[in-house]
Design brief:
Elements (H helix, E strand, L loop, with lengths): L2 E3 L4 E3 H11 L1 E2 L7 H7 L4 E4 L7 H18 L3 E4 L3 H11 L9 H5 L13 H15 L8 E4 L5 H15 L1 H14 L8 H7 L7 H14 L7 H24 L4 H22 L5 E4 L2 H4 L15 H9 L4 E15 L8 E5 L7 H9 L4 E4 L13 E4 L10 H4 L1 E4 L1 H4 L2 E8 L23
């Protein structure tokens, strides 16, 4: 009998393989998503993951699901693991605002922060062009948005705030300039020198950023000539506030900085849901480590929470569906170290006994969809099994030491999409600003 070791017991691997073979369904085209679309039903939160930040199929399958949810289920907007200012430009382009860019490449060329390939790629370009065409056939109030949820863009957010306030609120502009002046000595490396300095002077620029946020929020009712630009200015202020907290926590290397980041993404989702009205629905594109419930992994033991867990805890009654992704082998775009040139890297066969190995064995190399309600009573699946996770930094020769997250799959996700062999993403080549390299924890996700 073939078994895999677990901290609690040995599990019968052949039993798991047989179960996955019986309960998962083929996934070859958009029509094969019917069971998932039906399962989503009237849920208001759909979280679509990825097991890397550089895999073609993860982006294209997320796009296929997203298109169907927009067309068939009335979803309102997409929120992604990207910077607010960069993605806001994509949002305005997709909605056809004046002066929002003559074509998708001109908008993509504004992505300067490493890793640029995460959002400046042909897969996203194709989706945004589809979204633009879709929006042109709808009324202005029904156009679908595309927003960045992340916390890294401190300097870009501050610049956007200054430009907006210069035209609309001279008093708040003075407060914002004081905050910017406080950060100026630390501007050369996007938060890393600030994090080090904050370890000696914990408050540093906290007061200035808080004052700016309070001033902007107080005056929001007066900024009413472009509702979405008002939202963007407010969001940039929250980015600045939470980025300051994030960089102060970053130097400690514990779970605090991770939690600040994911809590910021959830609060951004809340603001976007409120902005789009009581009937709004969101589709989230993020790494599995953000959208899959942290309580079903070893992240929980480290004191970490994530977007999937927080949304389930707060909005279960509204329907929260998390869809994980994984693959057995293939290729990926990643760097060998922080700031490294992007490169195509071979992804080896998944390790023996992992979820990816089990799916591969179960279905003879077929792509599959598994709805977790089909296996929620199967006890053999409710012990942690290794589940591959690749970040923006990837060294396959070290994979078994740091690229697998022990996971209880039926508790981590509501559905899982398995692609047996994947291909690298297709980046749009952009010159990277080497000073804009965010340091993330853990795994560079």
């Amino acid at each position: 009998m073939e078994t895999i070791k677990n901290s609690k017991k040995k599990m019968d691997f052949s039993e798991i393989v047989g179960l996955l073979s019986r309960t998962s369904t083929p996934l070859e085209n958009a029509e094969d998503l019917d069971p998932l679309i039906n399962y989503i039903g009237e849920s208001k939160y759909v979280l679509l993951g990825e097991a890397s930040h550089g895999t073609h199929e993860y982006y294209t399958w997320r796009a296929k699901i997203t298109k169907r949810l927009i067309q068939e289920k009335g979803f309102s907007f997409i929120g992604v693991e990207g910077d607010w200012p960069d993605c806001y430009r994509l949002n305005r382009y997709a909605k056809g605002y004046l002066d929002s860019g003559k074509d998708i490449l001109s908008v993509m060329n504004e992505f300067k922060r490493w890793p640029t390939w995460m959002w400046a790629n042909w897969e996203v370009a194709a989706f945004i062009n589809w979204l633009k065409d879709y929006n042109e056939r709808t009324t202005a109030d029904k156009r679908i948005g595309f927003y960045g949820l992340d916390v890294y863009s401190f300097r870009e957010s501050m610049q956007s705030i200054l430009q907006y306030l210069e035209k609309n609120d001279p008093e708040a502009l003075a407060v914002a300039k004081k905050a910017m002046e406080c950060f100026e000595p630390f501007g050369k490396d996007e938060g890393q020198s600030y994090a080090k300095a904050a370890s000696f002077v914990p408050e540093l620029c906290e007061k200035e950023v808080l004052n700016m946020l309070k001033e902007i929020v107080k005056n929001i009712p007066n900024y009413n000539h472009d509702a979405e630009n008002v939202l963007s200015t407010e969001q940039n202020a929250y980015v600045a506030r939470n980025a300051e907290k994030y960089y102060r926590a970053m130097i400690k290397r514990g779970s605090t900085s991770w939690n600040i980041r994911d809590e910021h993404m959830v609060s951004t989702i809340d603001r976007l849901m409120k902005f789009h009205g009581k009937d709004s629905k969101i589709i989230v594109w993020e790494h599995n480590t953000h959208i899959g419930d942290a309580r079903a992994t070893d992240m929980a033991a480290e004191g970490m929470v994530n977007v999937g867990q927080l949304l389930r805890e707060q909005y279960a009654a509204d329907g929260v569906i998390a869809v994980g992704f994984g693959s057995y082998q293939g290729s990926v775009v990643a760097g060998r170290e922080w700031g490294d040139s992007m490169r195509k890297i071979k992804v080896p066969e998944a390790i023996h006994g992992s979820w990816e190995h089990a799916f591969h064995k179960a279905n003879n190399g077929q792509n599959r969809l598994l709805l977790m309600n089909k296996v929620k009573e199967e006890k053999c699946l409710f012990s942690p099994i290794d589940h591959r996770a690749i970040g923006v930094v990837y060294n396959p020769e070290h994979e078994k030491f740091g690229n697998y997250v022990p996971s209880i799959l039926p508790e981590r996700y509501d559905a899982f999409i398995f692609i047996d062999e994947t291909n690298a993403l297709h980046p749009i080549n952009i010159e990277v600003n080497g000073n804009q390299i965010p340091e993330t924890y853990p795994f560079g996700m």
